[in-house]
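Q: Could you fold this chain for me?
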Amino acid sequence: MTKTTACCGRLAITTWWCWWCTVALMPFVIGMATCLKDVFIEVPIAIREGNTAILRCDYDLEQEALYTVKWYKGRQEFFRYVPKELPHTRVFPLATINVDVSESGPNQVVLRQVTPELDGKYRCEVSADAPTFHTQIVAAWMHVVRTMDGKPELYLEKPQYSLGEKLRANCSSPPSNPPANITWFINDKELGNGRIIRIPSVRPSGQLFKTVSSIEYDVLIAGKLKVKCQSDIYHVIGSETEVMLDEDKPRLASILQPHDHSAGLTLSPSFRIIVLIIFAVIR
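A: Sure. Below is the predicted structure, expressed as structure tokens.
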């Protein structure tokens, strides 16, 4: 009995000790389970020179406090947000970067009047506060595009096409850097890029490129044709030009029918000779 009682006493003490340890360590267990996660960067893939770029950095701190958010272009830091400091934001001098401090904060940084020099890789570094100081870094590329305003120039060999003919056309994009991509469509069906050449040109703002594409297409469907040329850069900046072509139908039947002279239509002597030749062939 004594042995059993003693055993039961030790069991009770052990159970109480385990319960106390669990309660005491619970905050630390929770602290280990909650941490900085889901850090995500959102940067414009492509943006026109002179426009405003909004760079976002989202994250989930769970129950941790934010220590700092830092932004880098390449390896150079240019913006920092620290909630425990006043002011909360700091801008580090970096050539050509114009930070709008009033619009920048813990989740975004705003760059005004972007220049081609800002093309490159951007990193967002997020750190949780003590005691973990858990840190994550994410990165993305932003391309700054120099481009001339306007739509692609579309040229066709003929204004009309009939069944069985070969349609030939070329399209020129507005000058840009990087060069634009060209995609062809006929009756809203994508044909591809065609034969591409890129022509460089030097301008006061720097070197630009004009993309020229040509296609040959066998007309296998009767009726009207919608020809479209689409110019784009990184599938973000672009424009398009399209033309509608009527079918080139045979005119023989209309030529042979008598015309109403009151409509003001007359046949020239040379045209009468052509009509006579056609009649002779038919007979």
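A (continued): Confidence is low (pLDDT under 50) at residues 1-33, 252-283.
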